[in-house]
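[Meeting: bench + compute handoff]

Bench side (C.D.) handed over the final construct sequence. Compute side (W.E.) agreed to return the predicted structure before the next meeting so the bench team could plan truncations. Sequence as handed over:
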Amino acid sequence: MLNTAPTLVRLNSIVPGPAMRDPTPQLIELGWSQEKIEKLKTTLDALNYGNPKFLILITAFNEAWHERDAGGRSNRTLQGRDAETIPYGLPKGVSKFHLIDPDNAPERTQLVLRDIRDASLHHGPATD
């Protein structure tokens, strides 16, 4: 069951170590409201849900671009969970991000996006 690509990406993205402490008390001390803290938690949930899918998609495109078997080029038929479709859209309760237009972003934001693009050799980093 652990041989599916989404499961392996998520499994291998976990850094071993102690659980992080709950930042809520410190955020409250810094003046954050419960509503703002909940919005932060929702945002982190969305990133943790979407980024593994993004990595799988980019990896599949890269493998196909280099004419390597990306789970569909060979004559082998996928079986079981490997043949399942990844659900479309966001899970219930996860809000959609409102991405920014990099061309209309403030200069400081454009600089950060350029630095990310150059460091990762990616033509267009996500603005989430």
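W.E. noted at the follow-up: Helices lie at 5-12, 24-29, 34-65, 107-120. C.D. will use this when planning the next construct.
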